[in-house]
Amino acid sequence: MKKQYDYLIIGSGLYGSVFAHEAKKAGKKCLVIDKRDHIGGNVYCENIEGINVHKYGAHIFHTNDKAIWDYVNQFVEFNNFTNSPMSLSKGKMYNLPFNMNTFYQLWGTKTPQEAKAKIEEQVAAYGVKDPKNLEEQALSLVGKDIYDYFIKEYTEKQWGRKATELPAFIIKRLPVRFTFDNNYFNDTYQGIPIGGYNKLIDKLLDGIEVVTNTNYFSDRAKFDELADKIVYSGKIDEYFDYKLGVLEYRSLQFENEVLDTDNFQGNAVVNYNDASYPFTRIIEHKHFEFGKQSKTVITKEYPCEWNPSNEAFYPINDAKNQALFEEYKKLSLEEKNVIFGGRLSEYRYYDMHQIIAIALKRSKTELNND
Ligand code: UDP
After folding, report:
1. Which residue ranges run through the membrane (predicted)?
2. What is the atom index within ligand 1 of the atom nearest the CA of 166?
3. Could you report the predicted ipTM of this complex, rounded to two decimals?
4. Which CATH superfamily groups domain 5-82+190-248+316-369?
5. Active site residue 173
6. CATH topology for 86-173?
7. Which phi-psi region, left, alpha or beta, contains residue 183 (left: φ > 0; alpha: ψ -120 to 50)?
């Protein structure tokens, strides 16, 4: 017998919202549920003093894919914010990502040739050809100074593990440039939705039934009866009741402060690279939208271990956890009426544009085959 909804979508983050939007467009009836008291997952912003505060960590939209850029722009206009984080290391400020400005500030090198020679000299002195962990990867890519000033202490704080025990791929995200270019991302398109991310989510879910404060696991049998198919964007191990074991994450604690000044740090993101600071960075949210408010809101990010009572942010993709995930993935393929997708379901660190791309691809396959 046909059930009340075509799709029950669990989680109203970007994956669930894009899927729901596409399903509705194809004439399907969807119900979106979310256990939090708001929609939008981790892109949700809270308005404090007229400033959009990125409640679950800074989100900066960037992509090289024109189709994805056009897709989001049909819902909301984006400003021209460019992420150019600063770093405070050993008492001095430096530009990030690693570029000619950073090299000048660090060594006084004025040309790409001088900077390259400095890095090559340090890499050669280190001499490892086949890096096996994050420390070896960094030292063989950028040498000792950059590793000591910007990578080692930040990374060990962020992950709560020695850099020698972390996989190398974590820092492949960090670009190295021999131009005076402080743009963190290499992508063609970048910006923040004008008016905040909530607008984007509101538009995606416009006309779709959404219920917040509703946890699928509180009454699975009831929810399973509601729809022909389920789109699940929660934690994959939780879906299977952790029966094979618990997947590990790194979590963050955010400490917000409203300050009676219009400009605290002059930049949206300042990384605190030294181990002596217990937080990794301070976000000053108004700068994402060039805010002119008289006050400001800053957030200190404290990395911590994940436990079931805090939020799961960064998957720990080491060999042990990855192997466990693969076992869960096998189980998920046997669930014929459930589509698993998103960061928590795929146990993978995704950027926003990647989540949108997979949600569009999967919804297309699903809706065309239906
Ligand atoms: N990282 C670092 N120093 C920095 C910034 C980042 O060593 O100043 C490393 C760190 O290991 C981190 C990874 O690069 O986990 C990715 O950092 P990014 O800020 O790009 O990622 P986010 O945490 O914002 O997703």
Report:
1. none
2. 11
3. 0.97
4. NAD(P)-binding Rossmann-like Domain (3.40.50.720)
5. yes
6. protoporphyrinogen ix oxidase, domain 3 (1.10.3110)
7. beta
